[in-house]
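Lecture notes, unit on binding sites. The following record was shown on slide 14. It pairs a sequence with 1-O-phosphono-beta-D-fructopyranose.
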Amino acid sequence: ILDSMRGRMVAESDHLMMAGIREFENKFANASRIIIVACGTSWHAGLVAEYLIEDLARIPVEVEYASEFRYRNPIISERDIVIAISQSGETADTLAALELAKSKGATIFGICNVVGSSIARATDAGAYTHAGPEIGVASTKAFTAQVTVLTLIAMIIGSKRGTLETTKLRELMVELETIPAKVEEALKLNEQIIGISEQYKDATNFLYLGRGYNFPVALEGALKLKEISYIHAEGYPAAEMKHGPIALIDEQMPVVVIATKDSSYEKIVSNVQEVKARKGKVIAVVTEGDTTIPAMADHVIEIPETSEHLMPLLSVIPLQLLSYHIAVMRGCNVDQPRNLAKSVTV
Ligand code: F1P
């Protein structure tokens, strides 16, 4: 299975007319550090990759906002690999960040959706996501495709470095093959989410909480809501709540908690208790069959079970649907949100 996946990635990256992941895997395996540069949703995909690569391949990862990194004086060595992620492949900040890293000797791997885009052309190697055109300004399926490519990269480097055991690798590959069917299942939540959206469409603030692999998903859920419905939303690691945001919680505050069954489940149970103790309204995204968090939450959204490494591919879907329906109910143009450009080229 791994070989066929590798084949697929190489085939996809052929469009770049440069090396794909297979040609690049030795370089990845010997990297002293991986620096990910991106903006917006692509940056959130990069954050998921930080968990994946550190967990499966044991290489230190830094995830940088390209818009800050490009103006810093970063310390970069020739054994660093920079992964530049961009749906459009035209984001000026990401392009400038990768050019800065390149000028300091780093090797650049691109993950882009648009074939032949400026970022794709500026990289040393890469993989296209081929998620199809993003019709709206806000990235959705591009996120799923970016996370999928990054998962494959983490698995390939992990197997090459021997940090990912063959049995675990096989399990993950088999599980990855089930994801498209589970995404279809998650999309059936649409009707339920329309009902929840109806109740919260007039909220003025939202909080999104997640831990581990679901922390970047919390950030992405909040960003989608801000981008298309213009509701103020904050995403936080659930454990950070007690360091400030907890002061915001009252009976007016909808709190979306991504609390699927994973290694941080017990901890997030206590975060939900903290929110309920302050009368916040909890919209919980849980794993099918869970009973503990559903007993405390105001609304329960059940998604299929999968490995925690792959969970962002599923847990982001109800959050995208929630933002979409709230935005439509508020009369917002979900494809062309105000003030936002498809590719930020300045
Ligand atoms: C980055 C990004 C998107 C966001 C909006 C503005 O774009 O921040 O994530 O949804 O479209 O640009 P990209 O570099 O991934 O094309």
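Take-home: The chain has twelve helices and ten strands.
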